[in-house]
Design goal:
Blueprint: E1 5-6, E2 16-17, H1 35-49, H2 55-60, H3 66-77, H4 83-100
Antiparallel strand pairs: 1-2
Helix pairs in contact: 1-4, 3-4
């Protein structure tokens, strides 16, 4: 007989469950619409680095990694920046916005 699995899910700390039939991961915003939070983070980052990114273009680029967007925008706009470092900044802004609610 297999042992039950211990899960670490907020609100279910340490509860034992039976054998799961499946696990759902929301990796693309299907279950939670995170785009408004990403947009807020992008607004902070683009202002900080003087990058032009209109909201409609942001939504059109949905699903494109931040590092790729930053590389593309910096090339288009002739702005020298480390797109990997700025992508990390953007992720930190997103996480802060998510925590703030």
């Amino acid at each position: 007989m297999r042992e039950k699995i211990t899960v670490d899910i907020p609100g279910m700390s340490g509860e034992k469950i039976g054998h799961p039939q499946g696990i759902i991961f929301d990796c693309d915003g299907t279950l939670a619409d995170t785009m408004p939070l990403h947009w807020r983070a992008w607004q902070v980052i683009t202002a900080r680095h003087r990058i032009h990114l209109p909201e409609d273009r942001f939504y059109a680029l949905g699903g494109v990694p931040s590092r790729d967007i930053l590389k593309m925008l910096s090339q288009e706009q002739g702005i020298a920046l480390d797109h990997l470092a700025v992508a990390r900044e953007k992720e930190a802004e997103y996480l802060a916005a998510d925590r703030a609610g």
